[in-house]
Specification:
It holds the Pfam family MoCF_biosynth. A hairpin with an 8-residue loop joins strand 18 and strand 19. The chain contains 24 helices and 28 strands. The relative contact order is 0.07. The chain has 4 domains: 214 residues, Isopropylmalate Dehydrogenase (3-Layer(aba) Sandwich), CATH 3.40.718.10; 162 residues, MoaB/Mog-like domain (Molybdenum Cofactor Biosythetic Enzyme, Chain A, 3-Layer(aba) Sandwich); 68 residues, 2-Layer Sandwich (Alpha-Beta Plaits), CATH 3.30.70; 108 residues, Double Stranded RNA Binding Domain. The strands form 6 sheets. The protein has a 10-stranded mixed β-sheet with strand order 2-1-3-12-11-4-5-10-8-9, with helices on both faces. Helix 8 packs across helix 9. The C terminus is likely disordered. By secondary structure, it is α/β, with parallel strands linked by helices.
């Protein structure tokens, strides 16, 4: 049984702990959670932010989970002590620094991976030295005489030694050797093929060379892992531009501090950034977002970083499968986009996002996402309608993919590359369409190769097919046609039975890329032949209501109030398809959700169907075997065409009268009042509806109102008959 000490700490540290700790109950792992005190309140009341009892608890634990810590400046720290402790010479030392130094946690590990955003997927980690460097504590105001022989600068002479301050960047062979060994071991154990030492050796020449010699000596013991030294400012630049080019970035304390927050920003922000502090004793794990006192208790903090920090902790304790499940649940929640906190562009609170992550753990989705990238200037300037995107989208949806992105790119290499990066960052399958011709503006193959860092190779078999097809139609083979036989290295060539340009497929980092020519008669059959089916997925249940006589704004607030009152997770969407509104609620509850009765009561007066079927499409079966008589006061609505042939021999036909307050003709303005009276089996029902007299399409509204009124009357008569005593 592993013992985990939870130290919620200050501010939002308590909020994210409360939100994420239920994950331990859900995973049912052999761990015990114990709780201790740390942080600003401990300092304020006791003069030490890490009480001695907490140290004893740490020594009895296998790992520590820290929420967040508030730290303040020297004067504020003294002023916030209780009066009895002020003036006692107590010195505030950050709990984070105390933990790292006393437990010899020499490496701060900050993984960064692609979770969201329009960029190519990446996975890298910044490993920061924790105990030396500029944060070693050798920082002082005033330069003593004993240091004056080597601490020299013209401005010291101008200001005087007492009006200067100095910090020492400490680096030792012992500290650097263990740091670099850990970095290379981490790369090896996590499948990363490169370690980059970020320093400033061109300026800090002596200490830089000292560290470089040690780095190269350690690297020699790991021949399968690339090793390089780069200036820290260059690393910062390329971490923003191309984070996928890095594996492990290792740096001294301050450089690592800066680079790790930069990596967090590239990842999506501090709200999704976990960390581990490791050494040879008890290790601690924490989200890096800080305590944010102004947000504490307001249900605003992003809990994702705490979940991901728990995953790091569990992996450290040997629970790799559970850690992977948490990572996947966080990714699934962020990609779904329905329950995200403000920092990720959503409006969910801490508790709501945490519940969504926990539900993703309970119900993991094998959801495959797809993007469509169509290439060609003609698609953007309007000279060609992009019908391919719609047809490709239909086929992808039918194959089980969730299409989340459609892009069009001009015939420009940088634009194609950037668009493909965006698609790769959001999708498991990318379908690229167009730009495979022989001319200089057909740049798709070049853009794909550049985006993936692959060379182009000539394929003689494809060239033979191109020549055979052209000569078969009496056309000349030009040197430019050779471009159509060039493919990125490793591509599988897709034959084109209806044109000269073959397509190709590539697998890259668990993603599939299909590249197809532009003409529909060529690309669509090729897509049908090469589209990999998505794995079957267990979608969350969805309830649907097709409504008439309302618009979204009429019902949205009331529907969402029903969901809030029930206190259950659900995602509601509204689709306006004239003349209907379709309401869909996706929920994570197995069985009947608590909000269902309230929503049913609210929507029933406007209900057409629960399966998306219009009233007009249901009318023929509802009136089958019945006679009817229609008296229509509305010209040009073709209402009789909605009805089946009346049954012969029915002595009690359904009698229908429908009227409108005005003709279905211009001017298109104001309100059209509709009424329908139905006599059925001795029962009379009357229905009314006012609709905008907006245009010729109002005839569609009239027909649907007519069918809807008749269906309701028939259903009410049926219900009345069933309720009569035998």
């Amino acid at each position: 049984m592993k013992k985990i000490l939870v130290l919620p700490g200050d501010g939002i540290g308590r909020d994210v702990c409360d939100a994420a700790l239920p994950v331990f109950d859900l995973l049912q792992l052999p761990v015990e959670l114990h709780f201790g005190d740390i942080g600003w309140e401990c300092w304020r009341r006791g003069g030490d932010p890490v009480p001695e009892e907490t140290w004893r608890q740490i020594e009895r634990s296998d790992a520590v989970l820290l929420g967040a810590i508030t730290s303040k400046g020297k004067l504020e720290a003294e002023q916030e002590l209780i009066p009895e402790l002020q003036g006692k010479g107590l010195k505030y030392v950050s709990p984070v620094i105390q933990l790292r130094q006393r437990l010899e946690l020499f490496a701060n590990v900050r993984p960064a991976r692609h979770l969201t955003g329009a960029r190519k997927p990446f996975h890298c980690v910044v490993i920061r030295e924790n105990t030396e460097g500029l944060y070693a504590g050798m920082d002082r105001k005033g330069i003593p005489a004993s240091m004056s022989d080597w601490v020299r600068h013209p401005n010291i002479d101008r200001s005087g030694p007492d009006e200067a301050a100095i910090s020492v960047r400490l680096q030792t062979r012992f500290g650097l050797e263990r740091l670099f060994r850990y970095a290379f071991d981490y790369a090896r154990d996590n499948g990363l093929d490169r370690v980059t030492f970020a320093d400033k050796p061109n300026v800090l020449r002596d200490s830089g060379q000292f560290a470089a010699d040690i780095f190269h000596a350690i690297a020699a013991g790991y021949p399968g892992i690339g090793a390089d030294i780069q200036n820290v400012d260059a690393v910062a630049l390329w971490l923003v531009r191309r984070p996928e080019s890095f594996g492990v970035i290792v740096a001294e304390n301050m450089y690592g501090d800066i680079l790790s927050d930069l990596a967090a920003g590239v990842m999506g922000g501090l709200g999704v950034a976990p960390s581990a502090n490791v050494g040879n004793r008890v290790c601690y794990f924490e989200p890096v977002h800080g305590s944010a006192p102004a947000m504490a208790g307001k249900d605003k903090a992003n809990p994702a970083a705490m979940f991901l920090s728990i995953a790091l902790l569990l992996r450290h304790l040997g629970f790799d499968e559970a850690a992977a499940r948490i990572d996947a649940a966080v990714s699934q929640t962020i990609r779904a986009g329905r329950a995200l906190t403000y920092d990720l562009g959503g409006n969910a609170g801490t508790a709501e996002m945490a519940r969504a992550i926990l539900q993703a753990l309970r119900r993991p989705q094998a959801l495959k996402r797809a993007s469509i990238l169509c290439i060609g200037d003609e698609l953007l300037n309007g000279s060609v309608v992009n019908s391919n995107a719609a047809e490709i989208g239909k086929r992808l949806s039918a194959a089980g993919y969730a299409v989340g992105l459609q892009l069009s790119s001009p015939d420009q290499l940088p634009a194609i590359r950037a668009a493909l990066d965006q698609c790769l960052g959001q999708s498991d399958l990318v379908v690229v369409n167009g730009g495979l011709g022989p001319t200089s503006d057909d740049l798709t193959r070049d853009g794909v190769a550049a985006a993936l860092g692959l060379p182009l190779h000539f394929d003689a078999g494809s060239m033979a097919h191109i020549e055979q097809r052209l000569t078969g139609f009496g056309l000349a083979v030009n040197p430019q046609n050779r471009r159509q036989a060039m493919f990125p290295e490793g591509a599988a060539i897709l034959p084109n039975a209806n044109g000269t340009a073959p397509g190709f497929a590539l697998d890259w980092q668990d993603r599939r890329i299909l590249v197809l020519p532009g003409p529909p008669r060529e690309c669509l059959p090729m897509l049908d032949a090469s589209l990999p089916p998505a794995p079957a997925r267990q979608d969350a249940p969805v309830r649907r209501w097709l409504l008439l006589g309302v618009i979204e704004a009429d019902i949205a607030d009331a529907v969402e109030a029903c969901l809030r009152d029930a206190g259950q997770e659900a995602a509601v969407s509204y689709l306006w398809r004239y003349p209907h509104v379709e309401v869909s609620i996706r929920h994570d509850d197995d069985g009947e959700p608590a909000w269902l009765d309230a929503v049913e009561t609210l929507l029933r007066p406007h209900l057409v169907s629960r399966d998306g079927a219009s009233a007009a499409s249901q009318l023929a079966s509802a009136l089958a075997g019945r006679a009817w008589l229609l008296d229509s006061g509305i010209a040009d609505a073709n209402l009789g065409g909605l009805l089946p042939a009346p049954a012969a021999g029915d002595a009690d036909p359904v009698r229908i009268r429908i009227d409108a307050s005005r003709e279905l003709a211009p001017p298109w303005q104001g309100v059209l009042s509709l009424s329908c009276q139905i006599d059925n089996g001795g029962q009379r029902n009357s229905y009314r509806l006012d609709v905008p007299h907006r245009g010729a399409e109002v005839a569609d509204y009239v027909r649907e109102f007519f069918a809807w009124s008749l269906l309701r009357s028939l259903n009410e008569a049926h219900s009345h008959t069933e309720s009569e005593p035998a």
